[in-house]
Amino acid sequence: MPTYSIKMRASKSGMHVSGAERIIPQQDISPAISALAERALHHGLGRADFINIKMEEVLPTELEYLDALPVSTSPAPTIEGSFAIMRQILGELGLADKADELIDLFRHVHPMRGAVLYDVATGQRLEPDHERGIRVTYMDAEGASSSNSNKDHFREAIVLATKVINAPGIVAELCMSDDPDYVVGYISSKQHGYVRLPPLKAVGDPHGGRIFIFDSRKAKAEDAIYYLEKQKVLVRGLPPERPVNTNPQQIFAEELERLKEKSLYRSMRTMESAQSKYVDIKGNRTLMLASNSYLDLANDARVKQAAADAALAWGAGSGGSRLTTGNTQLHEELEAELARFKGTEAALLFNTGYMANVGILSALCDSESVIFSDEYNHASIIDGARLSKARTVVYKHNDMQDLETKILSTPCRKGIVVSDAVFSMDGDIIDLPRFVALGQKYHLLTMIDEAHATGVIGATGRGAVEHFGYSCAPDIIMGTLSKSLGAEGGFAASSKVIIEYLKNKARSFIFATSQAPAPLGAALAALRILENEPQHVQALQHNAAYFLDCLHKKGIEAHSPTAIIPIIIGDEATALKVAEELLGEGILVPAIRYPTVAKGTARLRVALMSTHTEEELARTAKLIAEAIKRCK
Ligand SMILES: *Cc1c(COP(=O)(O)O)cnc(C)c1O
Q1: Which of 610, 557, 614, 619 is nearest to 292 (CA)?
Q2: Beta bridge pairs of residue 284
Q3: CA 206 to centroid of chain Cα atoms
Q4: What is the per-residue pLDDT across 484-516, written as a single tens digit (0 to 9) for each?
Q5: Best substitution site from 480, 491, 509, 592 to test ligand 1's pocket, by max atoms within 8 Å of Cβ?
């Protein structure tokens, strides 16, 4: 049976999108070509508009069979740790004196798709064209399935590495993918095999590079280049294509490992004291600049007493859903208070803000609706939209022009426009007057999420409507009791009709045991404090202005009209390092990075409290400025 080499190259608007190749028996050609075309048409970088597929016969005498390099993983906790392992292996290969130079070259040869051919005997680069580099082709795994269009990076990398290491005079290879999501690199050699090094770069880093380490005392460069570019090779004995996993625990354990490799693994920090301006973390008293308890009410003596009193009077739990046995006077009293506070006809409690958004959107919208949603909206809004089965149209962040364009191009009978009032990652405020005007103009419901607005904006902390001088009001205000109100729970404030509808239709309201008495008592006490003591909101607003001023004096750019102050660092690893150093100095300021925010916009996210003092804020600004200088 004749064998063929097939090569696919795909581009979009002249830019390379995808490339792949196979060496397969004639009978497998059709499924292989359709799989390669699929790959080019459904690529993450976009659908290719130019696809070149080339086939040529390979004679049996031209084909060389190689055994796959053995694979091992040397996970290091940090990028520098991975480079230390790379340095050690280079040392064991007798390249200790060249290691620094090689690693430096590796970290800086980025923009080319081919590889550097580095001669350890002379220290020279031998690839004929530095722009193009050496491109390794004519290789495949023996017997690989032809119809799988998914790119198996891992197996393709081993095939390539195996061919490279068998080329005349090649001593080792260093490689890092240019895929921003794929942070695992490798070093391969005959002695050590294929050693995976996670992580070799930060998530979001688009740099990649490849160096073939060659020894001109062992072979001629042209022979190595000929082998790499022209010799037809099939690699045997690769790890299985899709590991057949029969142990369900193992599937999830492996998924967790992949998260770790991508630096996306999440873990929790343990607080050893109540949520307040100072918290104990690992035995250290730490200044809290990350809490949503903006008015420090979660630890307020009166609020805590009210929670205790409510529990003593009404019990620990509510014992049923609101529609069965779990509706108390306490629930109704808090709803009336919330409606008054937000200036609406009625309000409805949910167990959390998350459940409020999910319940409201899935109740008000169905498969005939369109939900217009700001691109930076909170995950609970996104989840509510998904659950509703409505069509979701995402508009540019706080861009009312784009919102109107999208409304005009998406005619609908039923629709809702929904947005955070204060955006949780940037701390900016919705353009409410235009948002509401667009809703009215096009007969769409308008809804805002005031999780970070209640208790924060408006002279008395009533939120966006007060902030804009009561000139406009959305149809639905969603809020949470868990942020500035220091308790737990969510709510919708709206017209009587909408609230009655939600009581009948919102499944996260209907099918959950109603809130326990303690958080209701706490939220009521917190609301009364807000109404009777405007100084807390004033102090918070003063602190935001004061802290921004301190940052500016230290030469740090930052803007925010709310209690959330992002300090953009850019690079993911640097942002993490700055946050780590600050924690070492007793200040908790988290680094927020991809995928929570866009790649390359990693930031410190400062959240202020009304109880922070000017001294604490000035000192924090100074320490942040110093940490950024040290880490950059
Ligand atoms: C925190 C938050 C929620 C969820 O509220 P919880 O009461 O914590 O469930 C919803 N929307 C936004 C914008 C939030 O920040």
Answers
A1: 610
A2: 281
A3: 16
A4: 999 999 999 999 999 999 999 999 999 999 999
A5: 480
